[in-house]
Amino acid sequence: MNLIDGKEVAAALRKEIAAEVETMVAKGERPPYLVAVLVGDDGASQTYVGNKEKMSAEVGFRSQVLRLPAETTQEALLAEVARLNADPEVDGFIVQLPLPRHIDEQRVIEAIDPRKDVDGFHPENVGRMAMGLPAFVSATPDGILSLLRYYDIPTAGKHCVVIGRSNIVGRPIANLLSQKGWDCTVTICHSRTANLPEVVRQGDIVIAALGRAEFVTADMIKPGAVVIDVGITRVPSETTKSGWKLLGDVKFDEVAPRCSYITPVPGGVGPMTIVSLMKNTLKARHGL
Q1: Is residue 57 part of a domain?
Q2: Which of 122, 148, 272, 288 has the fewest CB atoms within 10 Å distance of its CB?
Q3: Taking 90 as the threshold, does the pLDDT of residue 47 lie above it?
């Protein structure tokens, strides 16, 4: 069993991005500029945005976090989006999700200029990605591809089983791995899939992205499979100072011995998400 170390891969990609930015600045070009819009005081979102700000500094980006109160109206947020769309200095920006319940998330996503949509959520980017055209790919699917590439894991002709059909992870990674260059045969499983354990056992590559702690057990994985665990669930724990711990969708201790490669939680896919956002911002700076 080989452990896929997302921290190591993210660090290597950060170095590459920082070197490219350093070269740009040395030529007299301005560095990429990334803006994050945070509405409200959701703790997880604040942590995530803070990490984005920190990594932006590490790779030499200019960055800004716009913190708006939870009571911000949809109209006010859309006006902020329009302002960022029109600002020629801003290469890319994100509106951190989830948004307060009184705001229509999809309307906000669709208001973002696709050329600055470094989260890769705008329908134009999703459509271009699905057609194999240049596009901003959302962070988690892009991070998964980076891990497979870094570890030189064969994909051509392999059967990939994706558990989960969200628009953020399941559907895009299934589409991407079916495209030329990756050449997987892909099956998407979900809550209505009949004989799900049997279907998952057929996977040479299994991507678990359903958000249910330790759902995938050893009897669902065939020997030698590659397992990518996207899930992250906070559960109570009496053995940690914080009183909680993070679990993935895969029951790691029993599944790992059956795998050729597996990602841990934490430390697997998670570290890749922010570095993928940095990659997209750099692409935006170059006009994709």
Answers
A1: yes
A2: 288
A3: no
3-state secondary structure of 47: helix
In a domain, 278, yes or no: no
- Per the structure, the complete domain to which residue 153 belongs is given by 139-270
- What is the Cα–Cα distance from 234 to 242, expressed in whole angstroms? 11
Which of 96, 158, 229, 249 is the catalytic position? 96
Q: Point out the catalytic residue in the list 91, 119, 142, 249.
A: 119
The 3-state DSSP class for residue 171 equals helix
Number of domains in the chain: 2
pLDDT tens digits, 221-247: 999 999 999 998 888 888 888 888 889
Shared domain for 195 and 111, answered yes or no, is: no
In tens, the pLDDT along 260-278 reads: 999 999 999 999 999 999 9
pLDDT of the residue at 218: 98
Is residue 130 domain-resident? no
Residues 6+ apart with CB under 8 A from 112: 81, 85, 93, 95, 121, 122
The residue from 52, 251, 279, 283 that is catalytic is 52
Asked if residue 103 is part of any domain, the answer here is yes
Q: Does the active-site annotation cover 179?
A: no
Please give the mean pLDDT across all residues of the chain.
96
Catalytic-residue membership of 52? yes
- CATH code of residue 172: 3.40.50.720
Give catalytic status of residue 54 as yes or no.
Answer: no
The mean pLDDT value for 203-219 works out to 97
Asked whether the CA dihedral 261, 267, 270, 274 is positive or negative, the reply is: negative
**148/240 same-domain check:** yes
**CA of 34: how far to CAs of 30, 55, 62, 68, 95, in Å?**
12, 11, 6, 17, 11
Residue for token pair 């590490």: 58
What is the model's pLDDT at position 237? 86
